[in-house]
Amino acid sequence: MYLTKEEERILKGEDGEGFQRAMELLVAVGDIYEAEKMIEITSAQISSVAYTNSGETGIRFLEWLVSTGAHFKVLTTLNPHSIEHDRWKEVGFPKEFSLRQIANTKAYRKLGAVGTFTCTPFQVGNIPRFGEHIAWAESSALSYANTVIGARTNRESALGALAAGLIGKSPLYGLHLNENRKGQILINVEANLREHSDYSALGWSVGEKVMSKIPVFTGIPHNVDNYELNTLCAGLAVSGAVGMSHVPGITPEAPTIDSAFGGEKPEETITIEDKELKRVYEDRSTKGVGSKVDLVLLGCPHYGYRQLKKVSELLKGKKVHKDVRLWIATSTPIASAAKRVGWLDTIENTGAEIMCSYCAPVSRAAPFGFETMATNSSKATYYGVGGMGLKDTIFGTTEECINAAIAGKWGERK
């Protein structure tokens, strides 16, 4: 891989050992994928910020980077982590665990990262332009950036995004290149997409079928909103390894189906009907009607304004069951604005809790004793039993989940 004189200097350690290690990682990745050279990036988004992911080793590594004088050279934002950052005592997170999570995030801050703590960085200021090269590690966000914004990023690892943020560059390979961004599988959507959980189910179904290939969707409603697209991307990224998709007329580089495929024919055509979405809802649920729930989780990916508004409308005048905790995950900037218009007061008056900076799927359920979670996110069901250590998960619509939070048990599907 060709390196500029500046890049060679960094690789030799002349700018410090921290930058050297970052450059060594990027060069190794570039060599693996036969990258021609490095390219400048405009931002990075780092995953595995949660203490449950990084542990003490992660903290020591970050503090070592700080000690070498390393710092981020481009805008670098952070994924959500293991606690409600500002209200961990009130919510009930263990003290020692919470303090270690805070130590982790302080180390990132010393390196110059912005503590957005959200999986939807494009909602809170990290908004790349069409065609810009970036290095994002959050799977749903990077898929959204490629699909909806038309920015260019590979499916970065946490360390890869960190190294790219420190150097301000990334190897030129994969989805940074035009030839690797062509659609491969045509997806005809004939299912009725009523709300964003249906997009989550659609993403899960298609991800299972295409794995790491690039799907091209037809039949997506013209009035689809950004959160529904982000939810689609999240499902694609967790059941498969989809780094981007095309929605002709929405994806900037794909105004038509023909342009999405780069003038070539699709390798395969798959049709998704209502019965397939129903199958996903059922397959991602290990319990059914009448089952007690003790956690209802909304906001995976993190909620935006429209979703908080809808939840406030569905909850108005109601009360969450005494044996249930209703957690709604979002970012601090979104929550602050939603509070000004009264949505948060309406939500919190019911007993529901707004969880800022937090990602339940990367946290263990043990401190709270949760066993059964209801959620409107197929992604959350995947991490619920594995990452969170729950016994059961139930996947349904937003309204079904809220009804379960009020009743204390799962009701009939609509």
Could you characterize what this model shows?
- The chain is α/β, with parallel strands linked by helices and 414 residues long.
- The chain folds into three domains: 174 residues, 2-Layer Sandwich (Aconitase, domain 3), CATH 3.30.499; 101 residues, no CATH class; 124 residues, 2-Layer Sandwich (Aconitase, domain 3), CATH 3.30.499.10.
- Helices cover 41% and strands 14% of the residues.
- The protein has 16 helices and 13 strands.
- The strands form four sheets. The protein has a five-stranded parallel beta sheet with strand order 11-10-9-12-13, with helices on both faces. A three-stranded parallel beta sheet has the order 3-2-4.
- The radius of gyration is 21 Å and the shape is globular.
- The model has no long low-confidence stretch (mean pLDDT 97).
Give a brief outline of the structure:
By secondary structure, the chain is α/β, with parallel strands linked by helices. The chain has 16 helices and 13 strands.
